[in-house]
C-alpha cells in the first residue's frame, strides 16, 4: 500500500524517526574524510533550497509574525500595536462570516468530491475496457478548474440566463440566478470543486491496484458478497489513501481563491456569501493595504490549517489501517 | 523505507487491474449498463467545456438562449474582436504568461532536482531535519507568505515585473517537486552511481550524467505540472502585476470580465478558450506523466 509515495506523508513518520536515531552511531563509525566530503557535497546541492527556504519561506513566515503585531500600510514603517490586530478579529463580523463560509465550503465540498472520486474509482477498477480513456475524461476538469477561464465559465453557467437555467427551462423548471442568490452562490463553488473529483480518483485507482487479488479470492471462497468484500477488504485497505486524500483536499479547499474571486467579481458577494478566507485576506491586504491585519489573518490561517491537519493525523490512529 | 519502491515503471497504471472473482458474473448487459453510466457521466462532466467552446463561435445574444453544443453557424467574430478588445492584443498577455511559465519550469527543474539528489542519495548531517522541514512546507499555503513577499519584492522594485513569479522557482520553493523527485530517485538502482564513483566521478557528474537522464519521467511530470500551475495561477499574478502593461493571460481575462461585464460573453469565452488551449494540449501530450505524478504525490 505504501508503495505509493504518499506513505512518506501519511504513514512513515516512524521510519524517519528511526533513521534519525540510527544516524549518530552510523556517523561515528564512518567519521572519515569521505563522509565530511559527502556533507559538503550535499550542502552544495542544497544551496538553492537553503537560500529559498531562508529568503522566500522562513523569512516571510517570521516577518509576517512580526507584522501581525503592527499597523502597516506600506507607506510608513510598521508601527507596533501589540495584540490589537487579534483583538480586532474578535469583533470583525466579516471575518466571522468568512470563517463560516470557508468551513461550510470545505466540509461540504471535500466529502462530496471524495465520495464521487471513490465511487468512480470503484467502478473503473474492475478491469473496465477503455479505462485509460475514462480516466482521462474524468481527470481533465481537475487540471482546468483552477483557471480564470473556468471561473468565468462558471459565472455564466450559473447566472440568471446561464446554461443551467436554459437546461432547466427545457424540462419546464424556471431557475433563478444561482450566483446572485446568497443561498446558492456558495453551492456553485461546491459544485465546481466536486467537478474536480478526477485527481483524487486517480489516487484511489492507484491505491486499489495495490490490494492483492488473492484477498478477494479468499473472501469469495468464504462466501463474502460484493458488499461485504467492499466493507471488509477494500475500504480498510484503502484507508491510508482515503486519509491522504482527505488531508490534501482539505488543505487545497482552504486555499480556494481564484474561483471565489472571479465568480463573485472579487467581492465575495452576494452579501459575503462566497467570502472565503483567502479572499478576505486579499481584500484586507491588497484591497485596503492593511498589511498588519492581513498578516495576522495569514497567521490564523496557518494555525487553522496546522490544527486541522494535526487533528486529522490524531484521528487517523483510530481509523487508518496500515496493515503491518 | 517502504516508499523506496514507488512508481518508476509506468505501465502499472495503464494495465487493467486483475478482475476480482465475481466481477464478470453480471454478464454482458451489466457491463453495457456500466459503460452507459460511465459515458453519460463523462458527457455531463465535459458538457460545460464543450458548450463553452461551441458558444465561443456563437453571437453573444444566442449564448443566453442556446444550450446545445452544436453552434448553428460557425463565426469567428468573437475571436477576432476579443483578441483586440483590451489595451494590448491578446497574444501580448499570452506571451507574458508563456515567459513566466517557461522560466518557472526551468527554475523548478534545476533547483528541485539538485535538492532531490542530495536528499535521495547523500548522507549528511541534518538530513532528517532538513527533509522534515521540506515536507512541512509541502502544505504551506502561499497566502501565508504573500504579504511579506510583497513587501520584500516592492522594496526590491520588482512589483510589475515577472521577477517575483520566476525568481523563487530557482530556489526550490515548490517542495512538491523535490518530494516527487526524491521518491523517483530513490527508486533508481544505486549500482550505476557506485560504478561511476569507482571510476572517480564526483557527485555533480553522477547527478548530471546518470541520475538526471534516468529521471526523465519525473522531470517531465514536474515540468508539466509547473507549466499548468503557473499558467493557471491567478492569485500571485493578480498581486504582483497591477499595471495593465504587465498583465498575464489570467489577469487580463479577469480585467476583461470586470471591464466589459456581461455584455461580451462571446468574446470572453473565445479568449478563455484560447487561454485554456495550451493546458489542454499539454494534457493530451503528457497524460501519462500527469496521472503518474498525481498518483505519486497527490498533485492536482
UniProtKB/TrEMBL annotation, chain A:
Chain ranges passing through the membrane: 41-67, 105-125, 137-157, 185-208, 229-251, 296-315
InterPro entries given in the database record: ABC_transporter_permease (IPR051393), MetI-like (IPR000515), MetI-like_sf (IPR035906)
Bias (Basic residues): 23-33
Region (Disordered) residue spans: 11-33
Keywords attached to this entry: Cell membrane, Membrane, Transmembrane, Transmembrane helix, Transport
Residue ranges occupied by any ABC transmembrane type-1 domain in the UniProt entry: 99-312
A Pfam family matched in the record: BPD_transp_1
Protein name: Sugar ABC transporter permease
Organism: Phytohabitans maris
From TrEMBL, chain B:
Keywords for this protein: Cell membrane, Membrane, Transmembrane, Transmembrane helix, Transport
Record keyword RNA-binding present: no
Region (Disordered): 1-29
Localisation per UniProt entry: Cell membrane
Membrane topology reported for the UniProt record: Multi-pass membrane protein
Listed transmembrane segments: 36-54, 92-116, 128-146, 166-185, 206-231, 264-285
Domain ABC transmembrane type-1: from-to ranges: 94-286
Listed InterPro entries: MetI-like, MetI-like_sf
Source superkingdom: Bacteria
Cross-referenced PANTHER family: ABC TRANSPORTER PERMEASE PROTEIN MG189-RELATED-RELATED, ABC TRANSPORTER PERMEASE PROTEIN YESQ-RELATED
Protein family: Belongs to the binding-protein-dependent transport system permease family.
Entry protein name: Carbohydrate ABC transporter permease
Organism name: Phytohabitans maris
Amino acid at each position: 500500500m505504501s508503495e505509493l509515495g504518499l506513505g512518506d506523508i501519511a504513514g512513515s513518520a516512524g521510519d524517519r524517526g528511526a533513521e534519525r536515531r540510527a544516524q549518530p552511531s552510523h556517523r561515528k563509525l564512518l567519521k572519515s574524510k569521505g563522509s565530511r566530503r559527502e556533507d559538503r557535497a550535499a550542502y552544495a546541492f542544497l544551496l538553492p533550497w537553503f537560500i529559498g527556504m531562508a529568503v522566500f519561506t522562513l523569512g516571510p513566515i517570521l516577518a509576517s509574525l512580526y507584522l501581525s503585531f503592527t499597523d502597516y500600510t506600506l507607506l510608513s514603517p510598521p508601527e507596533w500595536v501589540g495584540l490589537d490586530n487579534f483583538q480586532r478579529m474578535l469583533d470583525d463580523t466579516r471575518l466571522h462570516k468568512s470563517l463560516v463560509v470557508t468551513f461550510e465550503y470545505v466540509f461540504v465540498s471535500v466529502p462530496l468530491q471524495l465520495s464521487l472520486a471513490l465511487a468512480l474509482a470503484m467502478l473503473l477498477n474492475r478491469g473496465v475496457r477503455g479505462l485509460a480513456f475514462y480516466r482521462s475524461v474524468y481527470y481533465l476538469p481537475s487540471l482546468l478548474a483552477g483557471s480564470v477561464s473556468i471561473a468565468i465559465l462558471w459565472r455564466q453557467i450559473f447566472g440568471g440566463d446561464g446554461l443551467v437555467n436554459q437546461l432547466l427551462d427545457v424540462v419546464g423548471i424556471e431557475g433563478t440566478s444561482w450566483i446572485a442568490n446568497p443561498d446558492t452562490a456558495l453551492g456553485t463553488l461546491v459544485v465546481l470543486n466536486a467537478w474536480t473529483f478526477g485527481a483524487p480518483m486517480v489516487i484511489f485507482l492507484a491505491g486499489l491496484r495495490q490490494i492483492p487479488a488473492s484477498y478477494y479470492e479468499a473472501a469469495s471462497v468464504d462466501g463474502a458478497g460484493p458488499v461485504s468484500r467492499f466493507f471488509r477488504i477494500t475500504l480498510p485497505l484503502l484507508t491510508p489513501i482515503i486519509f491522504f486524500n482527505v488531508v490534501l483536499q482539505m488543505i487545497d479547499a482552504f486555499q480556494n481563491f481564484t474561483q471565489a474571486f472571479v465568480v463573485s467579481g472579487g467581492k465575495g458577494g452576494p452579501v459575503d456569501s462566497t467570502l472565503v478566507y483567502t479572499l478576505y485576506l486579499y481584500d484586507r491586504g491588497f484591497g485596503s493595504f492593511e498589511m498588519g491585519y492581513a498578516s495576522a489573518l495569514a497567521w490564523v490561517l496557518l494555525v487553522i490549517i496546522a490544527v486541522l491537519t494535526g487533528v486529522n493525523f490524531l484521528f487517523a490512529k483510530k481509523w487508518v489501517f496500515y496493515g503491518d | 523505507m517502504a516508499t523506496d519502491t514507488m512508481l518508476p515503471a509506468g505501465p502499472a497504471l495503464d494495465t487493467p487491474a486483475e478482475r476480482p472473482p465475481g466481477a464478470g458474473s453480471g454478464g454482458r448487459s451489466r457491463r453495457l449498463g456500466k459503460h452507459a453510466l460511465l459515458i453519460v457521466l463523462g458527457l455531463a462532466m465535459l458538457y460545460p467545456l464543450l458548450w463553452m467552446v461551441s458558444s465561443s463561435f456563437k453571437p453573444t445574444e444566442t449564448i443566453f438562449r442556446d444550450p446545445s453544443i452544436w453552434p448553428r453557424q460557425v463565426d469567428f467574430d468573437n475571436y477576432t474582436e476579443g483578441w483586440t478588445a483590451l489595451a494590448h492584443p491578446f497574444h501580448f498577455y499570452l506571451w507574458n504568461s508563456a515567459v513566466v511559465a517557461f522560466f518557472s519550469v526551468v527554475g523548478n527543474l534545476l533547483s528541485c532536482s539538485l535538492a532531490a539528489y542530495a536528499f535521495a542519495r547523500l548522507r549528511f548531517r541534518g538530513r532528517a531535519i532538513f527533509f522534515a522541514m521540506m515536507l512541512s512546507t509541502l502544505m504551506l499555503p502561499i497566502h501565508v507568505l504573500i504579504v511579506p513577499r510583497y513587501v520584500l519584492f516592492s522594496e526590491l522594485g520588482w512589483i510589475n515585473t515577472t521577477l517575483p513569479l520566476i525568481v523563487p522557482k530557482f530556489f526550490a520553493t515548490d517542495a512538491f517537486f523535490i518530494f516527487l523527485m526524491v521518491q523517483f530517485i530513490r527508486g533508481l538502482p544505486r549500482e550505476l552511481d557506485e560504478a561511476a564513483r569507482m571510476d572517480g566521478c564526483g557527485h555533480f557528474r553522477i547527478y548530471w550524467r546518470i541520475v538526471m537522464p534516468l529521471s526523465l519521467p519525473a522531470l517531465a511530470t514536474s515540468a508539466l505540472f509547473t507549466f499548468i500551475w503557473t499558467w493557471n495561477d491567478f492569485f500571485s499574478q493578480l498581486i504582483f502585476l497591477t499595471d495593465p502593461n504587465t498583465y498575464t493571460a489570467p489577469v487580463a481575462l479577469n480585467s476583461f470580465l470586470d471591464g466589459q461585464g456581461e455584455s461580451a460573453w462571446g468574446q470572453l469565452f473565445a479568449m478563455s478558450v484560447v487561454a485554456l488551449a495550451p493546458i489542454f494540449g499539454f494534457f493530451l501530450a503528457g497524460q501519462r506523466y500527469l496521472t503518474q505524478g498525481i498518483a505519486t504525490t497527490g498533485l492536482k
